Amino acid sequence: MTKRLLDANASDFATMTSRQLMEAIRLSEGRVIAAEVITAAPPLVDKVSNGELAAAMGADLILLNLYDVTNPQISGLPTEGESGTEHFGHFSLGMGRTIADLKRMIGRPVGLNLERIETREAITTSGRLATPDNAQLAVEQ
Fold first, then answer.
1. Contact 49, 77 (CB under 8 A)
2. Distance (Å, rounded) from C-alpha 90 to C-alpha 87?
3. Could you tell me if 112 and 52 are in contact, meaning their C-beta atoms sit under 8 angstroms apart?
4. How far is it, in rounded angstroms, from Cα 63 to Cα 93?
5. How far is the first Cα of the chain from the last one, in angstroms, to the nearest whole number?
6. How confident is the model over 1-27, as pLDDT tens digits?
7. What is the pLDDT of residue 115?
8. Would you say 34 and 59 are in contact if contact means Cβ atoms under 8 Å apart?
9. What is the pLDDT of residues 90-122, one digit of tens each?
């Protein structure tokens, strides 16, 4: 039996299938909060990504916007190779940080927007387009 999303913890999310997650949301009867986070935006709090901040403020689900599956970045998380202890006021660009990194840190389900765009010129990178290849990369991340 699936738990309500509100009763689930990080270890439950780690083993949930997509169908179980949908059922957990349904069982929560409309009391689920989703927050959309722009991954390229600077963090609002020093040394804390906006995804972490949203989770700390009670968001049950995090949705990433402007996430590029071909060049992953989550601002506020340490860039791969950084210790995360750089001086005050320095914010990390989070280059190389993936959906899995954020999910592991916050213990919540994380999704992303892949854009359906009529013309490729309307978007700055092909890693944000809703294509089968990008969807597969997102699943792998």
1. yes
2. 6
3. no
4. 18
5. 27
6. 678 998 999 999 988 998 999 999 999
7. 86
8. yes
9. 678 888 999 999 999 999 999 999 988 766 666
- Name the token pair of 26: 């349904």
Residue with tokens 């969807």: 135
3-state secondary structure of 38: strand
Place of tokens 């009867």: 29
Q: How many residues are there in the chain? A: 141
Name the residue ranges covered by the structural domains of the chain.
Answer: 1-32, 33-140
Task: Enter the tokens of residue 73.
Answer: 């970045």
Sequence-distant (≥ 6) Cβ neighbours of residue 14 within 8 angstroms: none
> What is the full DSSP assignment across 40-108?
TSPPSBTTB-HHHHHHHTT-SEEEEES--TTS-B-TTSPPTT--S-PPTT-----BT--HHHHHHHH-S
